[in-house]
Each structure stands twice: as C-alpha cells, then as structure tokens.
Amino acid sequence: MSGQTFKGRTALITGSTSGIGAAIAEKLAASGANIILNGFGDADAIEAQRAELEQRYGVKAAFVAADLTKGAEATKLVHDAERAIAPVDILVNNAGIQHVAPVAEFPPEKWEALIAICLSSAFYTSAAALPHMKRQDWGRIINIASAQGKVASAYKSAYNAAKHGVIGFTKSVALEYAESGVTANCICPGYVNTPLVQGQVAGQAKAHNMSEEDVIRNVILSVQPNKRFVEPEEIGDMAVYLASDSARSITGAAISVDGAWTAW
C-alpha cells in the first residue's frame, strides 16, 4: 500500500518497542500513519526507534509510557496519546506477557497481571478510543490475540483464557459498532520469530542437548504444520490491511496467521 494510505491518521500500538508491536508500528508508519509507541525498554533505544520512524517515513511519532496492569493507566494512555499527537484513529492492542505453570500451582499475582495486560487493557483502551472513532464515523481496533485464543495448551491457562477473551471482546465491539465506520478484528498469530522466542530456542537446545534446528522443528513448531516461524512483518502487513478501507467489511473476525496450527 502507498505511503499515503493513512496520511492524517494516528495509530496507537501497545507493546510496540520490540517484536510484533514494533513491526506493526513500522508498517503503519510506512503507510503514512502517525505513531504512538508504548512499551518497555531502554530509553535511548526507544528514542532511536521513535526518531527513525519520523525521519524514514515523514510522520509524527511519540512515545507514551503506561502500566497496563492498571485500568486507569490504560485509559490515560489513550488520552495522553491525543495530547502527544492527535486522537487515536487506529488502536492496536498488542501488549502481552506469558507465564507457564500448572493451574494448581499458578501464582495468583501472575494470573492477575497476565489477564490485566493481555485482556483487560484492551477493554480500557478501546472504551477510551471508541467515542472519537464513532464521532468521525471511522476507526480501527486491531487486537493481537493468538492461535491460543482458538485452541489451548497445557500450562498456559491464564494466556489461553486471556486470548480467548480477547476474541470474544472483539466480537462484541464489532457488533456494537457494525453500522458505523468502525471495525474491530483480531489477528491470531502462531509462533512468531521474535528475540524472545529465539532466546527460548537457545535455552531449549542447551537444556535438551539438541540442535537449534531440531528444537525449532520438533519442539517449538511441533504444532505449526508449515514448520516455520511467522515473521513479525507478516503481522504488520495484516494489520495494515485490516486498517485499510479495503477491509471495511471485515469486522468481528479472528484471522489466523499460524501456518495451519488451528487447522488440525
């Protein structure tokens, strides 16, 4: 899509200082959107990312911090984004964390934090952004769910619950705003090639005395039939499409980008 596709629009992407969120931010900036970055990381690295988006794509970019475990801060993030650049036209709820443990041993504080960041923050940011979207009869909410929002895995009860919840929440928003120019959709990635996942590959290889190639194919991607990682840029391209007018009739969808994981 051309660099002018979203000229004059402002996109807020939570968890966009690395990985999937950073790729989405770059793809939207390349399509002309002003960008609000949000997430954790080294302050100098975040500033370099912000400055590069402005310089490379000729858009405005700002960074706004928020503790998404707190509903009030998730709400404030949207209002701070408006003060930094403009009201949010495109909202991408991408921030997430993971914790793996049996249900009976799952630390309650980990459950609460994971549900807050992966599910509840999407409610708070959406509720804050939707009035502006409805007033202008145009808006896009794109929630990054997961293949594990459609199928479950053992030891990931909180993540499974949160991502299933994100899909249900997104459908509700789509129904409520179906007669407006606002759409709400989910992207459901499989395993994505991020630094976090690559670190897991190295750790698994060492722990099991396996090659990294065997870990990728036979351990991590055992559930992903195409046997390759999704690249972050693929999720970015899907987000750009869902935000475009070409996708104006796509709403309430949970679109799999998972190498046929959920086709089993």
Automatic annotation (TrEMBL):
Q: Which organism is it from?
A: Pacificimonas pallii
Family to which the UniProt record says this protein belongs: Belongs to the short-chain dehydrogenases/reductases (SDR) family.
Top enzyme class of this protein?
oxidoreductase
EC number of this enzyme: 1.1.1.30
Q: Which UniProt keywords apply?
A: Oxidoreductase
Q: What is this protein called?
A: 3-hydroxybutyrate dehydrogenase
Name the domain of life. Bacteria
Q: Which NCBIfam families match?
A: PHB_DH, PRK12429.1
The GO molecular function terms of this record are: 3-hydroxybutyrate dehydrogenase activity
What PROSITE patterns does UniProt report for this protein, alphabetically? ADH_SHORT
